[in-house]
Amino acid sequence: CPDGYTSFAGTCYKVFTEEKTSYTDAQTHCNSEGGHLAMPKDQATNQLLVDLISQASHPPVYYYFGLTFSEEKNEFVWDDGSSLAGVSNWGMGEPNGGDEDCAAFCSGRWCDVTCVFTAGFICQVWGK
Question: Its domain of life (predicted)?
Fold first, then answer.
């Protein structure tokens, strides 16, 4: 894995706490690292990310990951276009919609937030 990334099941993950930013800028940052926003498609990966967040010093409350609301499909979809397919870690009363079309970790669960909200973020790159 690149420096600062944690390896898990063939993929590398890194939590960015200092660079609070919008969803689009977070995406761009992950792309520049050679990856994309993390997609915790199973419970084990999701738990790893929650653990990584909890280890961060002075953490922001919210962390973007690769899940956004698709107007076309009228549901949240992963950034690679695949559906949630039964994986879910939404917090109580979430997602609560409105113009909150981006997903972020909040207190170990998922919340929907507006995409211009400034938050930390989590990147994933493929392991070598």
Answer: Eukaryota
Do residues 3 and 117 make contact, with C-beta atoms less than 8 angstroms apart? no
Mean pLDDT score, 85-113:
92
| Distance from chain centroid for Cα 2 | 18
In order of their start, the domains of the chain are 6-126 (3.10.100.10)
* Calpha distance 110→99 (Å, rounded): 16
pTM value is 0.93
Given a contact cutoff of 8 angstroms between Cβ atoms, the answer to whether 72 and 83 are in contact is no
Is the Cβ–Cβ distance between 37 and 64 less than 8 Å? yes
User: pLDDT for 51-71, tens place per residue?
Assistant: 999 988 766 789 999 999 999
Q: What is the mean pLDDT of the chain?
A: 93
